Amino acid sequence: MSAVNITNVTVLNNPASFLAPFQFEISYECVTPLKDDIEWKLIYVGSAEDETYDQVLESVLVGPVNVGNYRFVFEADPPDPSKIREDDIIGVTVLLLTCSYLSQEFIRVGYYVNNDYEDAQLREEPPPKVLIDKIQRDILSDKPRVTKFPINFHSENSEGGVQNPSQDCQAQVDGNDEEEQVSGPPPDCDAQVDGKDEDEQVSAPPDDPSNEVL
Q1: How far apart, in whole angstroms, are the C-alpha atoms of residue 89 and residue 87?
Q2: Is residue 211 pLDDT above 80, yes or no?
Q3: Residue 11 placed within a domain
Q4: Predicted confidence band at 206 (pLDDT cuts at 50, 70, 90)?
Q5: What whole-number distance in Å separates Cα of residue 201 and Cα of residue 141?
Q6: Looking at the domain assignment, is residue 35 inside a domain?
Q7: What is the pTM of this model?
Q8: Cα–Cα–Cα angle for 105, 2, 38, nearest 5°?
Q9: Average per-residue pLDDT in the chain?
Q10: Domains in the chain: how many in total?
């Protein structure tokens, strides 16, 4: 069983300009104390075909990790458009929110993101060169895909490491959280949404941005 479970993630500024910072309110619970900090990271997938275009937008260490419920605001800069192929800026891509302990990723929350011109005329007749300041991003946040990876949280007790990912599940709100502000940088799924689990992982965006997210 995981020592840390995400109970809710809320996208705070959505939709927004492509150049606006990302803001997420993350709620999680710790069921056993940990000696080291946990690391939250936000990754923007710049290309479905080539992971070298992925950008780590922000990484932050949060601790100490004692038993209890927590909530914090995670803010990250937008991706650098100069590091994305122009053909990949407009359209659907993926945003990954991950959490790791001792360099072992144990939770990944994936969102599809649709980037397009806000102006209808620009959508119908796109300019030859992408106008970054005219692009609006829309994070399809209603059904995030949560993947859990079993890891060894207490390395002094047994050998361990990252294993195969567990069955995916949906995160659900858990109330009565303590609030902690951070700005900047098991095989069992015990969090659900709509009472159903699915068995799909986020890898590349769909062909149709209207498809159900994650």
Answers
A1: 6
A2: no
A3: yes
A4: very low
A5: 16
A6: yes
A7: 0.74
A8: 45
A9: 80
A10: 1
| CATH number for 142 | 2.60.40.1490
Q: pLDDT-based confidence at 159, cuts 50/70/90?
A: very low
Tokens of 199: 């068995």
Question: Domain for residue 207, yes or no?
Answer: no
Q: Is residue 189 part of a domain?
A: no
Quick check: helix, strand or coil at residue 50?
coil
Alpha helices, DSSP H, located in 37-145: 86-89, 120-124
Amino acid letter, residue 56: V
Q: Which of 4, 19, 28, 51 is nearest to 202 (CA)?
A: 51
Residue 95 neighbours by CB under 8 Å, 6+ apart: 22, 42, 43, 44, 45, 110, 111, 112, 113, 139
Amino acid identity for residue 88 in this structure: D
Please say if the pLDDT value at position 12 is more than 90. Answer: yes
Write out the residue range of the structural domain in which residue 121 sits.
4-179
